[in-house]
Design brief:
It is a single chain. With 219 residues, this protein is an alpha/beta fold. It is 43% helix and 16% strand. The protein has helices spanning 4-7, 23-33, 50-66, 77-83, 97-104, 117-126, 152-159, 177-182, 192-195, 200-218; strands at residues 10-14, 37-40, 71-74, 87-90, 109-113, 130-133, 166-169, 187-190. An 8-stranded parallel barrel has the order 1-2-3-4-5-6-7-8, surrounded by 6 helices. Strand 1 (10-14), helix 2 (23-33) and strand 2 (37-40) form a beta-alpha-beta unit. The chain binds ligand LCLJCK34, ligand 3NM and magnesium ion (MG). Ligand LCLJCK34 binds at residues 11, 13, 39, 41, 43, 74-75, 89-91, 94, 111, 113, 132, 134, 142, 167, 169, 189.
Length: 219
């Protein structure tokens, strides 16, 4: 069984529409740089569907498996079950936490996006393993993202005694990643900071250094 808090440290999310280079090369570089978890998020204009989506998921999952990086699928529960992914991530507009937990089983990782204490409590009750909280900073990557709210909810949940693993998401860069850990998150999830970097390897390495150093100071 993996240590989920450790796995969430440097959480890279990507699909073909986020990459300038070949997605498999970007993922391989990111793994060499030290990412700890990967989410396949094939979404947006020009995204693959059907068998092309399945093929890309399988290719990226194979790379993750070779390097012991857990593979999470965004939104598409049927795909996750079909390829025996390590888990799924869902938001408040997706299938309910209860339904998804029943579909994937007790042993898979279930991440849920939450925007309030109420949503967090419901998600925990229904079987979530970690929270994605954002957007922490402004982002252009998700067209329907909510307005950015900094780290306020992360801080509030921790102050109220919430011990569920948390990742911040949205506009996170090498420069601001440490502030998300300082607020109480276990890790950072990023798309652009790695997928569009000149060197995904160097970007992942710098993020990892920043997150792990800050985590050592905080603990
Ligand atoms: C780690 C993580 N946190 C939040 C999200 C966003 O999920 P959601 O609100 O369902 O939006 P989409 O990603 O589906 O557009 C995420 N994917 N991962
Ligand atoms: C997928 C996603 N979810 C968000 C949320 O707020 O829930 S923000 C976001 C996009 C993150 O991309 P980038 O690292 O390029 O800003
Ligand atoms: Mg979703």
């Amino acid at each position: 069984m993996i240590d989920l808090r450790e796995a969430l440290r440097v959480y890279f999310i990507m699909g073909s529409t986020n990459c300038v280079k070949n997605p498999a090369d970007v993922l391989s570089e990111a793994i060499s740089g030290g990412i700890t978890l990967f989410q396949f998020r094939e979404k947006g204009e020009g995204a693959f569907t059907g068998s092309e989506k399945y093929a890309l998921a399988h290719k990226l999952q194979t790379i993750c498996r070779e390097h012991h990086i857990p593979f999470i699928v965004n939104d598409d529960i049927e795909l996750a079950v079909a390829i025996d992914a390590d888990g799924v991530h869902i938001g408040q507009e997706d299938e309910t936490v209860k339904t998804v937990r029943a579909k994937i089983g007790a042993d898979k990782i279930l991440g849920v996006s939450v925007h309030s204490t109420e949503e967090a409590l419901t998600a925990i009750r229904d079987g979530a393993n970690y929270f994605g909280i954002g957007p922490v900073f402004p982002t252009k990557t998700k067209a329907d993202a909510k307005p950015s709210r900094g780290t306020t909810l992360i801080e509030k949940l921790r102050k109220d005694g919430c011990e569920t693993p948390i990742v911040g998401i949205g506009g996170i860069t090498i420069e601001n990643a440490a502030s998300v850990i300082e607020a109480g998150a276990d890790g950072v999830s990023v798309i652009t900071a790695i997928s569009k970097a000149d060197s995904p390897l160097e970007a992942a390495r710098a993020l990892r250094n920043s997150v792990i150093l800050k985590g050592m100071v905080e603990s």
